Amino acid sequence: MTERRSWAEPWKIKMVEPITMTTREHRAAANLAAGFNTFLLASDDVYIDLLTDSGTSAMSENQWAGLMLGDEAYAGSRSFYHLVDAVAEVYGYEELVPTHQGRGAEHILSQILISEGDIIPGNMYFTTTKFHQEYAGGRFVDVIIDEAHDPASTHPFKGNVDLDKLAAVVDEFGAERIPYISVETNVNMAGGQPVSMANLAATYEYCHRHDILVMLDATRAVENAYFIQQREPGYAGKSIAEILPEICSYTDGATMSSKKDNLVNIGGFLALRDPELARKARALLVAFEGLHTYGGMAGRDMEALARGMREMVATDDHIRARIGQVHYLGRLINEAGIATVQPIGGHAVFIDAAAALPDMPRDHFPAQALTAAIYVDSGVRAMERGIVSAGRNPETGDHNRPKLELVRLTIPRRVYTQAHMDVVAESVAAVYEQRGQIKGLRFTYEPPELRFFQARFEEID
Ligand code: F0G
Fold this sequence. Notes:
It is built from 16 helices and 14 strands. It has helices at residues 24-33, 61-68, 78-90, 102-113, 127-135, 163-173, 197-209, 221-231, 240-249, 275-288, 299-314, 317-335, 353-356, 366-378, 387-390, 418-433; strands spanning 48-49, 95-99, 119-122, 139-142, 180-184, 213-217, 253-257, 268-272, 348-352, 380-381, 383-385, 406-410, 441-445, 456-459. Bound molecules: ligand F0G. Ligand F0G is lined by residues 52, 54, 101-103, 126, 128-129, 184, 188, 217, 219, 257, 259, 268.
């Protein structure tokens, strides 16, 4: 018999939060009232909430204790200096600009670096990141490797930058029109797929030869570090705490949504190396977020964040269990014969809705329809990541048409048990069996910006 060593969690549960069990009838009515958009559901109507891993983590006893010790001074809060020290030690960045969450950092970064008509290459887009680049007058150009757009490809580093694509962008527009490249670790929209250390190093080297800055979206860099440790030659013997600052060493700064890796419910930051750039960022910060020693956070939030950041790399057991749970769910869903993005990523299982509903036209939003059907079946709340999330092309007015049409089952950190994952997999399998009954959708309300958050739909008969 081969020895089995499971990924079980390195913590036990001290406090529980009851959740509502609902009937199918209740959920069908809630779905209609929400216009087939899971963002518009009340959480009281949700049983297992896999909408996002953002701000949904359970904090540790040490983080909760930190909340009581937060220094709420308007200027020079002790908790801010704890955060500065934690970012310097854990990520290796010296200049810290605190923000209320990731998009606050994206806003400030875009405003200080992008001029009208600039081009921002990136390894696939993220919704708010691209929004802020365009809002500042820039244009995003995708330079991720082709494998990232193929859900079935098992490439171990599907988040990699395609250096030939990047060079073509530089040739076409000129390096002077490209203030920075936006490199995301564990690329969310590609399915939580990592970038290799070799690719980060090569991208940095190329960009520095052309005077282009490299800005990291470090939101899920710890999950990326785990995949480097597991998959990249030379890293098996290194700890996550060692790999993480090495990732950051190939960048000039980072935007961070601390609501993910950092194990807090709110917070984020912009980190930089260049003190002059940091000065510009702080000048805008005071107008849009808050004073430079709290940005958008309360003192207690910064205290919990500093502690969460150290906890996420204190041992490798945390990240092993976190990704172990995601992979456990992915395996159950794949074993039920349902296609997902391969390999299973770091924060979520992404069901290939285009494969599940091959006869439904993309303009009828198969991933949106499948997400609603899963909710009605079991109260499991997922999210669409496909044509609805991609929005419209501002020039032509037509839908952007990403190759990936996905339903994201996103796992909060330290919140749900293995039994919850079993319930999710059983519901997804049951809906898949009955998928012939799922109808396409059309908009009844389409917001002009970031439409997926507030759009409403009805069924097409
Ligand atoms: N970058 C990435 C890669 C993200 O996944 C997110 C948020 C942000 C930036 C923005 O950060 O939410 O703190 O303002 N992603 C969440 C999600 C919303 O559900 O994937 P934020």
